Amino acid sequence: MAAKSIAELDLQGRRVFIRVDFDVPLTPAGGVSDATCIRESLPTINYAIECGARVVLAAHLGRPKGRARSELSLLPVAAYLAETLGRDVVLTDEPAGDGAKKVVYDLRDGGVAMLENLYFSPGEEANDETLARALASYTDVYINEAFRVAHRAHASNAGMVKHVASKGAGLHMEREVKMLGKLVGEVERPFVAVVGGIKVSERMGLLESLLGRADAVCLGGAMANTFLRAKGVEMGRSLFDSSKLPIVRAFLARAESSGVQVILPHDLVVAEDAMAETGTVVSTAGVPADRAVLDIGPESAADMGTALSHARTIFWNGPMGAFEAPPFAAGTLALAKAVASVRGCATVVAGADTAAAVGRAGVAGSITHISTGGDAALEFVEGKKLPGLAALES
């Protein structure tokens, strides 16, 4: 990444605007139920504080659609952060305006303020120039630490950045770019990708980008159902996208001509639906008309594990089935253990469901990098230019 690191910038006594990712789930009582995203930003926030910066944090929460909603206030996030940091975190009563400006300008060295939910302003998602200039006026140094929204051109991560002379990436943002960057350009081979999930439409861009880069692609989840149907397999009541069959057939032809091995399941776990207490393993030739595919079978998981065992680079996005239901989790958990067991290999996992899978399998500590980037991570791997990164490099 051509952008500077926060470690390269002078922060002492300066107002440092840090765009963080604090879009966290809340409990019914209004507390933070999962602080993963907050914890990921702590090294950058603490670094700025230790440097004597006047820290201004900015984030969004939920989808308030441009209007203030008390249930989506960042107040519980500010309270959690204050307790974690052991210091006051002053929350403004608006994302921008005279009140917010006064809070920011009253900060002293080492002080921390948090702007109220950026999405309370319709100008944030619209990348409004007036809001961008207002936010830029609050800072001497701009830091982007919110990789998960880097694919969006918003006022806080794109529009305002051109009005700030000193800018750079936070420590977590740097790591995301560094590790995901191992999947583009000169990849250490063999490079094996595992792609699952539900919708073919959401993954075709990623799959197309892997042609010519990956040596093999293992497919699972409902997305694999569409590929199997494209090859003439009867899928019973399984979820698949009939509108994408021509696209899938064309992709398979290009993969063959490019020398990319596409590994599809050859045994499957079927049941009446995801609420069933158990499933039955069948071959792809034996999917009953009244059953749906909900997981890959044990032989398919083993074959994919064999392909992974020879890899030097692995990228995994998307579960192999309805893994949230215990009867249909075996395929996903087997893949998680297979990915984690490969030695001397760079392993990158992306997506909330996939991250949850490696956690459930108890192998998160053996994965090189677990990205929380979501769609931003996929677009990065596809080779797309992310507005939040481009703004830092300009």
Give an overview of the whole structure.
The protein is α/β, with parallel strands linked by helices and 394 residues long. The protein has two domains: 6-174, 3-Layer(aba) Sandwich (Rossmann fold), CATH 3.40.50.1260; 184-382, Phosphoglycerate kinase, N-terminal domain (Rossmann fold), CATH 3.40.50. The chain is 36% helix and 16% strand. It is built from 15 helices and 15 strands. The chain has helices at residues 36-50, 75-85, 98-105, 122-125, 129-136, 155-159, 171-180, 204-210, 221-230, 245-258, 298-309, 330-341, 352-360, 375-382, 387-393, and strands at 15-19, 54-58, 90-91, 112-114, 141-144, 166-169, 191-195, 216-219, 261-263, 267-271, 280-283, 292-296, 313-317, 346-350, 369-371. Strands 3-4-2-1-5-6 form a six-stranded parallel beta sheet, sandwiched between helices. The chain has a six-stranded parallel beta sheet with strand order 9-8-7-13-14-15, with helices on both faces. It has a three-stranded antiparallel beta sheet with strand order 11-10-12. Helix 6 links the parallel strand 5 and strand 6 (166-169). The radius of gyration is 23 Å and the shape is elongated.
Shape: elongated
Amount of helix: 25-40%
SSE string: EHEHEHEHHEHEHEHEHHEEEEHEHEHEHH
For the secondary structure, the number of strands is 15
Mean pLDDT rating:
96
Q: Which class of secondary structure composition applies to the elements?
A: alpha/beta
- So what's the CATH class of the largest domain? Alpha Beta
Q: Give the end-to-end Cα distance, rounded to a whole number of Å.
A: 12 Å
| Major beta sheet summary | 6 strands, parallel
Oligomer: single chain
- Total helical segments: 15
How much of the residues is beta strand, in percent? 15-25%
CATH architecture of the largest domain: 3-Layer(aba) Sandwich
**Gyration radius over CA:** 23 Å
Whole-number total of structural domains: 2
Low-confidence stretches: none
CATH topology of the largest domain: Rossmann fold
Q: How are the strands of the biggest sheet laid out side by side?
A: 3-4-2-1-5-6
CATH superfamily of the largest domain: Phosphoglycerate kinase, N-terminal domain
